[in-house]
Design goal:
With about 110 residues, the chain is of the alpha+beta class. The chain has a domain of about 70 residues. The protein is built from 3 helices and 2 strands; from the N terminus they run H-E-H-E-H. Helix 2 links the parallel strand 1 and strand 2. Helix 1 runs parallel beside helix 2. The radius of gyration is 17 Å and the shape is elongated. The relative contact order is 0.14.
Length: about 110
């Protein structure tokens, strides 16, 4: 999402529309720059989260999910609990390390 220019263009194109703007950025510097830009220039409500877009589980990606309530924080919380975690066992793949971690309740950061 970068510094939020795409969202700000949407904001400028539809200033009177009933919009809520959502964005995801992994880089903390760009995330914070976006928060500043949105606070200064957006006329619509917004929620920006710091996370890895490619790893967010689909069940958490909708605008009504609780992940969006954690947005807009200068020191963003860890979003990894909302990431997709593939099963260590599938027809084509088995990871003993992941299987052991799954059963012990431990995982690496």
């Amino acid at each position: 999402m970068g510094t939020g220019r795409f969202l700000l263009v949407a904001n400028e194109m539809k200033p009177k529309a009933n919009l809520v703007l959502f964005g995801v950025e992994i880089n903390v510097a760009l995330y914070r720059a976006c928060l500043v830009n949105m606070a200064m220039f957006s006329v619509h409500p917004f929620s920006i989260i710091r996370a890895d877009t490619l790893m967010i589980d689909r069940k958490w990606s909708g605008p009504s999910s609780k992940i969006w309530d954690l947005g807009n924080q200068w020191n963003p919380p860890d979003m990894s609990e909302f990431y997709f975690k593939p099963s260590p066992i599938s027809r084509d793949h088995f990871s003993l390390k992941a299987f052991v971690e799954m059963n012990s309740g431990e995982s690496e950061p």
